[in-house]
Structure formats: C-alpha cells, structure tokens
Amino acid sequence: MAAPGLRRFVLLFAAGALAGVLGMTLLPHDKYLRYQALNDGTAPTAYWIYERIHDDPAPIDVAFIGTSRTGLSVHTRRLEDDLQRLGIHAKAANLHIVKNGVNMQYVVAKELLESRPVRLLVVEIIEWEDRKPHPDFIYLADPIDILEAPLLLNLNYFSDLARLPGRQVDLFLQTQLQRHGLRKPDFVPPPYEGSNLDHAEYIQTLDGVRHPRDERHTAEQMAALRAAQDRAITPALLPAALEQIEFRLPRTYLDRILELARAHGTGVVFLYTPRFGGPPEPPPYARLAGRAELINPWPRLQDVGLWGDVTHLNWDGAQRLTDFVAAALARRPELR
Amino acid sequence: MLFNSYAFLFGFLPLALLTFYGLRRLGGLRASVASLTLASIAFYAYWKPQDTLVLLGSILFNYAVAAAIARAAPGRGRALLALGICGDLGVLFYFKYFNFVAANVAAAAGFEPALRAIVMPIGISFFTFTQIAYLVDCHRSRASERNLVNYALFVTIFPHLIAGPIIHHAQMRPQFDDLGRKPIDPAMIQMGLLVFVIGLAKKVLLADNLVPGADAVFDAADHGAGAGFAAAWVGVLAYTLQIYFDFSGYSDMAIGLALLFGLRLPVNFDSPYKSRSIIEFWRRWHITLSTWLRDYLYIPLGGNRHGELQRLRNIFLTMLLGGIWHGAGWTFVIWGALHGGYIVVNHALQRGAAAGATGRGDRLAGPAKQAATLLLVMVAWVFFRAKTVGGALTLLQAMFGGGAVGGAVGSAVSGAAGSAAAFAPALLFWIVLGATLALFAPNTQQLARYTARLGEPLRLAAGPALAALRARPPAFAASPAVAVLAGLVFAAAFAQLWRPTIFIYFNF
Minimal Cα–Cα distance from B184 to chain A, Å? Predict the structure, then answer.
C-alpha cells in the first residue's frame, strides 16, 4: 500500500515519537512534588506521608496502609499510648490515602519500605475486593510501577501510561524552575504536623478548621446508607472460575505488598475494617489465610452509635477499634 | 471528539484509516468513500449522539432542496433557494440566537424573558454555512449532487465538520470522484502527517500554554476586577496569540487529516499577523469565512455595484453580520462592527492615497503599518474574548487609559491566584515564542509547500533538511531528519494530551 519513501518516513516519525516519549519519561524530578500534587484541597495526606517517611527521624515501627476506613479508624497516638501501657514502646504512622485501590497502597508501602526499616505493616482489608485501580495512582507511582501495572482488566492502564510523559515533563520543569526561583509552588504544604497525623478524632482541613468526627445515624438511616452503597458496588461479573482474572489487579498488588514486606524483613498483619452490617469475616481473606494474621474487630463494632457513616467509624468507634488493634499488636513478635 | 484527544489519535483515526485503506486495498475504492462518510457521522455522533439528528436532518433537507432547485422551472428556483436558506437560517437562529433575541426583546419591553434550555449542536454554524453556499451554487449552476453519500461526505467530512475550513462543493466533488477511481498519491499522506503534527503542536504546545494568562486577565475583568496596565497588555497579547495558534492549529490539523485521506481542504490562515492593513488581515485570517462572507453576503447585498457609499455600507454590514455569526452576544456585535469600521476606514485611506491625498496610512512604513494593524486587531479581540462589554471596556481602559502596573488583574497573572497562571515567566516565554513565530516564521503551507489548488502537485521539498530550511521561503524536506523531528514534536504534544482543551472555534 505505502510507497517505500512513505513507509520510511512514517517509521522514522514513529521512532522519533517513541524516542521523545521515552526521553520525557526518564526525566528526573523531586519526588516530594508528586506527593504535593495529590491534593484534594481539603485534608490531603500524601505530602505528610512523604514528610513522615523521609524527613522525620522518629522511627516507624507500625505502619498502617489503607483507605479512609483506616484513616478514620486508627488513631496512632492513642495506639502508641495503649501499646505503652502494654509494655511496648513503638511509634506508629497512619499512612492512608483516601479512595479504594490496592495499587495505591502498594505505592505507599513501597515508598515506605524502600526508605526505612519498619517492624510491622498493617494492611487494610475490607469485605469486598475492588477490581478497579486507585484513580490517583498516576500521581504517586514511580514510572516503573506504571509500566509494570497489570494490564489485564486494568481500566486505567493505558490512560496512566499515556499521562506519564506529561507528568514527568511537568514535574521536571517544576523541579528545575522552583530550584532556580522561577516558579512558585502550586501547593505549599503547611508546617510539618508531627509524627502522628490522625483523622480519627477530628479532621483538620487545610484552612485550619477542625471538623470533629462525632457523626451518628439512626439504624434506619444507616440501613438506607447501606442500601445506597450496595447499589454502587458491582458484584462479580465473571463466573467463579474466572474470579482470578476479574480480581487480578487487587490481588496482584496485595501479593506485591506481601513480597515487598518479606524482602525487607517486615511483618504483615491484615486489619479488617468492615462496613456497618458487613460480614463477620472479610471474604477476600479466605485467599490470604496463612500468609498473614487477620485482626478482626468486627464483633466489637456492631453498635450503630459507633459509626459516622456506613463505612467509617466515628470517634467513639475509632477509639474502640484502636484499643482492640493495640491489644492484638501487642501479641505480635515483631513488636516484642 | 477532539483532534487533540487520545480517543481520536489512538482510537478513531487509526480505525478510520485502517478501514479506508483496507477497503481500497481490497479494490473497494467507492466503498472507501462510503466508509469515510460513515466515519465522519460517527465522529460527530461521538460528541453528542442526539445532535446527529440535527446534522442528518439538515443534510437531507438541503439535499432535497438542492435537487428541487436543479430541477425547477425558470423562476421557481429563486423561491426554492429562499426556502432553503430560510430553513437553514431558521434552525441556526433557533439554536444559536433565540435566547439572545428573546432576552433582549424582553428587556426592551420590560418583561421577564421566556428563555429555553437550548444547547447548540456543535459545528452548526459551519455545516449551515457550507450548505447555504451549496444551495446558492446550485441555483447559479442549475446542478446538484445526485449521490447522497457524496453529498453527506461533502457536509460531514470529519476534518472540517466542526470548525471548518468552510468548503465548497465544486472543490470537493472532483476529489470525491478521484477517490472513487484513483489511488492516493503517497506524498499526500506524508505531507498530511507533517501538517497535522504542526497543527497539533500549535494547539497543544502554544495555544494551550497561553490560556492561563489570557483567562486570568479576562475572567478577572469580567468579574469586575480593576486591571493594571501591564497585566491587561499581557492578557490581551496572550489571547491574540492563543486564538491564532488555536484556530490555525485546528485548520492545519484539518488539512493534514484530509490529506491522510487523499483530500485537499482550502487554506484558512496565511500568517495574518504579518498583515499591513486590516483589508490584508481579512485576506489572511479565517480565509474561508472571509471568502464566504464576500461571495454569499457582500455581493448579494450589492457589493460595489451601486457606488462607493453603498459599497462601504455593504462592507460594514457584512462584517457586522460576520461578528454576529460568531455568537449571540453584544461583544460579538461590537467585534464585527469594529472590523467593519476598520475596513471602511482602510478603504477610505486607500482611496485617499490613490487620489494623491496625504493619506496618513500610506505614509507609514511597513513595520509601522503592521504594528498599527496588529494593535487594531488586538483591540477588537478584547471584545471578542470578553464575556461582557463591561469587562472589555475595563481592559481597554487599563491598556490605554493608564492605571497601576499591577492591579487586581495583575496579581492574577503574577501568581496570587495560585493557579497555573502563577508562573509569569513561563507565560512571558510562551508569548515571546508565539509572537516570534506568528510575526516572523513561515507558515504551515509554506513549510510543507501545501496548496489547495487541484492539479498542482503536492510534494514536500526535496534534498537535505538543512538546505530546504535555508531556502527562500524555508521549507521542510521529505528527509529522515524532518520525519524524526516531527516524531519528537508529536511526542512533546502527546505529553500534554492528558488535559485536552476544546478549540475556541468549537463554540461557534
């Protein structure tokens, strides 16, 4: 179809394009800018996670990774006090990032474990597996993690891949221009908020306002909220025999987290953060039993007064869960 | 679907090309033309499927009216033409101007306007003008397109469908016939790729990087913030360059895409900011609209057939209506009136100079004429871009009426807003680069040696890349270096595609 001259021209064009994309992808930048960019404008945690991991000399003995369920349920200062009372001196950090997506938890775990020693990694597990990737994976992930993300049934694979060169160029330019005083930062993080950034008791938004977490609902309201959430969750679409394919993405990343922890000599436990009225045991744990212990606070969270909404405990619930988790962690050999 | 989107570049376009050339390879030359028609309709439907009904309805209506005009007995053709034009303008009026007129009538009469929730189908101005021209041409020639597929392709061919260039049936029909008979010259595809990449770079790398500067200033002024002298000039300059690179970039992409399918579209821009008069500007800016306005509005209004005063009146009216074509709003009316006034004065000055009078315009040196022209164009762009007349006047006052260097608008540009506009040095960089290219660099058709004239060969320059670039005018050669360079530019544009922005002229 194509004349030799045209074919050569098109091939050279494609080679130039590919070289350009690769070159941009390899541009260096200050990784802290990535963690600043993941900013929902209200109460972001990513910049603090980076500061805690890289700039705070206080150890991280116990690290929690997960979603807002973990973020709003585990109060690390209370946990440290509980552990102290149980004779264990350990520093804890709640490194949650809001929204579902195990790939994001992998990114945080990787950043943490490759940067400093951690005795115990507490990984959130919930009552269902979300087959979708975290929507903000592109903000924090290393280029290699974007390239090596599972391709099959990963709805964001190509969009993340396509966005990568642009992200790299933006971050490279920001790094260079800020370094030379030619550009003001898009986001200036507040002064370091200390070794514990907890959202369980209250959420302090970027405007400095503290929002207490004392929400409560009646049983009827919670039932309605639960029904609404049920409608938002897509049940398994493929037959049971193909379950491994359908949920390949979250399972791959959980496996990667476990492998990463093993490689760094870090212990792992799963923490079940159920929703109100959820099953007594998280079904996804069936696959993982034997690979890591499950901390299951479900029996203690059946009082509707402990819940701020259908998936998040309020401060009363968070205290109860934190105390329960501290007691469970105190038995772990990694902290003894 | 935007040309500068992943869906288009990595989904629609490869699929359309594969189908088109696949069918041609299998010997289905006419089927390939039909596939292009279907692809074009799908391209339009992707945007908003229900609008396709308006587009297809318009196509069928005009096809039928044109056929009736061609068959009509002498004397009846004119009535049918009037019917067709009224039908087209009626639809356009409803979607584009109904609420504007209703609101102004209600305001004048002192009652609450009964506005409707009307969403204008994208590209309606363009496909309506294309078809009005077609009806007039049919009336003049007493002939119409008999093949509905060819007619639908003429109206919908996706590179031009949304924002032009406005095409004529007489120019496209022989090309459709050739597509159905002959193989496509590979040189067209090579050139198409290059022209498309130039257009993409203009849009994504230049125009889009000027947006924060222009938006910050105009939005602030529209919201009543006082403007500073420097900020106002920076914002207006940014918009002046943005609209040029945005629209000429779109037009280049359209021409490049058409070439990929073996078709030539008319040139729409010819380095307009190099113009040394407003008359020349309109021969270089949105050329297909200027030509349309001349052929289908100015000349029917009487042209220059009834004396100088009537001619100037017709010019003014034509430009005024051209302004209104762009949108329903007083800012567009003023923009059109300004250009109408400019051209009238320009003609008067030319006439004075020709008569040996001391025409000031004629005494100006070339660069001064160019600067004066650009200044007048920029003043008009203030009304074109501003959402309110008040906002436009605020900016003009800041530009010409003195005032603080910074001001509220200034802080928006220099970074207090904390947005993408925060980086003033970057904005200045893009302005300087854009101005240099717009004022001094050869344009796309010069670089690619593109011509829309059928029968003239389409070939990139021959020989080494550097030798071609040193030629007068400079050109891109069909060399390996140019191919790799185009690939690199495409990569740079690709990196910005994750935040695609709409083309300015998609709004019209």
Answer: 10
Do A73 and A322 contact (CB within 8 A), yes or no?
Answer: yes
- Residue A197's Cβ-count burial label (10 Å; 0-12, 13-18, 19+) is buried
Q: Read off the pTM.
A: 0.87
Start-to-end Cα distance in chain A = 72
Alpha-carbon Rg for chain A, nearest whole angstrom, is: 22
CA distance B259 to B196: 9
DSSP A192: P
pLDDT tens for each residue of B210-235: 998 999 999 999 888 877 888 899 99
Can you give the C-alpha Rg of chain B in angstroms? Answer: 23
Mean pLDDT of B35-63: 95
- Partners of A118 in the β-ladder: A60
Mutate to test the interface with A, among B494, B496, B497 (most CBs of A within 10 A): B494
pLDDT per residue as tens digits for the range B337-353: 999 999 999 998 888 77
**How much is the pLDDT for B472?**
83
Residue-range domain boundaries for chain B = 201-349+364-446
Q: Give the residue with greater pLDDT, A42 vs B276.
A: B276
User: Do the chains contact at A20 and B487, CB–CB below 8 Å?
Assistant: yes
Residues of B in contact with A26 (CB under 8 A): none
Q: Phi/psi class of residue B67: alpha, beta or left (left: φ > 0; alpha: ψ in -120 to 50)?
A: alpha
Share of residues in chain A with pLDDT > 70 (%): 99
Identify which of A14, A162, A165 has the shortest CB distance to residue B487.
A14
Each domain of chain A, given as residue ranges in start order, spans 2-335
**pLDDT confidence tier of residue B290, bands split at 50, 70 and 90:** very high
Contact A123, A268 (CB under 8 A): yes
> Which of B1, B118, B104 is CA-nearest to residue B48?
B1
Q: Which of A197, A200, A196, A199 is nearest to A318 (CA)?
A: A200
- CB A16 to CB B187 under 8 A? no
Instruction: Mark the ranges of chain A whose per-residue pLDDT is less than 50.
Output: 1
Q: Is B486–A24 a contact, with Cβ atoms under 8 angstroms apart?
A: no
Is the pLDDT reported for residue B380 higher than 60?
A: yes
Candidates B193, B415, B491; nearest CB to A184: B415
Q: Which residues contact B256 (CB under 8 A, 6 or more apart)?
A: B159, B191, B192, B193, B194, B195, B196, B197, B198, B199
Question: Contact A24/B425, CB-based, under 8 Å?
Answer: no
Which ipTM value was assigned to this complex? 0.86
Sheet holding A293-295, edge to edge: A92-94, A60-65, A118-125, A267-272, A293-295
Beta bridge mates, B461: B477
Determine the residue of chain B that is closest to A168 in CA distance. B495
Active site residues of B: 326
**SS (HEC) of B70-117:** HHCCCCCHHHHHHHHHHHHHHHHHHHHHHHHHHHHHHHHHCCCCCCCC
What does the CA dihedral A264, A268, A273, A274 come to, rounded to 10 degrees?
130
Place of tokens 């034009």: B85
Q: Do B193 and A186 touch (CB under 8 A)?
A: no
pLDDT score for B136: 94
Q: What is the C-alpha separation between A80 and A198, in angstroms, rounded?
A: 12
Chain B residues near residue A6 by CB distance under 8 angstroms: 186-187, 189-190
Reduced DSSP (H G I as helix, E B as strand, rest coil) percent helix, strand, coil of chain A, to 5? 50, 10, 40
CA of B442, closest CA in chain A: separation in Å? 22
- Proportion of chain B above pLDDT 70, given as a percent: 94
Helices within B180-284 (DSSP H only): 186-201, 208-222, 229-260, 278-284
